[in-house]
Amino acid sequence: MDTDRIPTPFHAGELRAQALAGAEPFNAPIRNRMPDQHRTFFPLLPFVCVAVADAAGWPLASLVQGPPGFASSPDPARLDVAALPALDDPVRAHIVADAAVGLLGIDLGTRRRNRLNGVLAAVDGAGFAVDVVQSFGNCPRYIHVRSLVPVERTPGPVTTFGADLPARARALLAAATTLFVASASGAAAPDAAAGLDISHRGGPAGFARLDGDVLSVPDYAGNRYFNTLGNFVAEPRAAIVLADVATGDVLQLQGVVDVDWTAAEPDRVPPVERVWRFRIVRGWLRPGAFGLEEENLDPRLRGDDGLSLRG
Question: Which residue of 20, 55, 76, 97 could cross-link 33, Cys pair, CB 3.0 to 4.6 Å?
Fold first, then answer.
């Protein structure tokens, strides 16, 4: 499997982010194929996180659901997803063959997560297939532990908005313990390091702080790859998606990111190493769009605020 490692998996933005953060150069285990543990992981999941780009090159992020097994890997170079975003999802129109795509598989109950970046090889009315470009794991820290089960929901009408967020969107951000951020490598990245990416961010409720049209997101210690922040350096346009598992409401945002590399808060819990600020440009609020809800979970698996920080 070592032969599947990409010799130079980082583009210039990621290398610049690593330098700004004081990370030493290293050989990351980022592969051009899915290892067996990733191939057997995706079929366990009831949803995957998806990143695409719109016609103007802005990242978009969504959550795509299906019964366990809907995401499967027929061979190490391919992931098949037997589901599509809903018709009212802004991502749906951009799931097209030959487009770049980023996926995150995450199990909130076990805190496992694996990322996959690639190209949409085929799309039909039942789903899509992805040719793998990069496959790698992430550490399990900062994931709010919860077990999700299917639930019937009745989706409501979509609200579209600009930088002036509706009250419900503000409430969702204020209560959020989990969000997913989509980013892009920019046009200058070499093929092996290029494309779309989607990653997890988590913390205590309200960890991401909204002030006007700017969402400030703390950045904690992680795997030191700086894929997301490196993408921000190369391409500041980004997207966010989050879901309220109590109501099924889904919030999707597009915005422009600025990273403050000096905004450390070592006394905050968890300690904050830097902050990125997401200036909201536009968004979509889709009531009842997420068909999973939280199952009762043994409180011994949680921290006091429900956030697992074991790593």
Answer: 76
- The model's pLDDT over 272-298, given as tens digits with 9 standing for 90+, comes to 889 999 999 999 999 999 999 998 644
Tell me, what DSSP letter sits at residue 31? B
Handedness of CA 138, 144, 145, 147 (dihedral sign): negative
CB-CB neighbours of 36 under 10 Å = 10
Q: Are 96 and 123 a contacting pair, CB within 8 Å?
A: yes
Is the pTM here over 0.85, yes or no? yes
Q: Containing H/E element for 18? A: helix 12-20
Instruction: Give every CB contact of residue 3 below 8 A, 6+ residues apart in sequence.
Output: none
* Tokens 């992020």 found at: 61
List the domains of the chain with CATH numbers.
2-295 (2.30.110.10)
Q: What are phi and psi of 42, to 5 degrees?
A: -55, -40
* Residue 248 and residue 154 in contact, taking contact as beta carbons nearer than 8 Å: no
